[in-house]
Amino acid sequence: MTGDKADGGEVPLLYSEGNIAARVALEREVRGWSTIELADRVSKAGVKMNQTAVWRIENGTPRRRINVDEALAFARVFELPLEELMSPPLEGLDLNSRRLVQEAVEAYYETRDAEDRLHHAVVGIAEHIQAHPDSSRAIHEQCLRLMGDERDARTLTEHIEGGGYHR
Prior knowledge:
Elements: E1 5-6, E2 9-10, H1 17-30, H2 35-44, H3 51-59, H4 68-78, H5 82-86, H6 95-131, H7 136-147, H8 150-161
Antiparallel strand pairs: 1-2
Helix pairs in contact: 2-3, 2-4, 7-8
InterPro entries: Cro/C1-type_HTH, Lambda_DNA-bd_dom_sf
GO molecular function, one term: DNA binding
Protein name: XRE family transcriptional regulator
């Protein structure tokens, strides 16, 4: 086949089943999951799998083949695009660094989601204050009661009175 060989040697595949197997092991380890936990998560994603199958995919000789449904389930479980799952693992990061990156990514998404919730709540309260201007003091008192810290309550109240952000 044209493009399959270069200089008499094999052309390394950018996307391959072997890469998926390596990424499955890496992504499982980064998350601190056992092979049993990964098998359970894949099964819950709709593709029946057991711990032995995960181990054979990661370590078997010969390695257990991965079908398309399994690859898609792994991608769902790891929250990765299939293309990323099929790509070679990144070089230059040890397991601890990968875990820290994973933690940062998760914290980023949690923060983004929390900021979105805050924005919607702040806009709603700001609209309430606009319709009922005399409620501003009571809203600050409720913030203080719930937060327990005057400075934080004042910051949130000012944020609300300013109409929030992204407005």
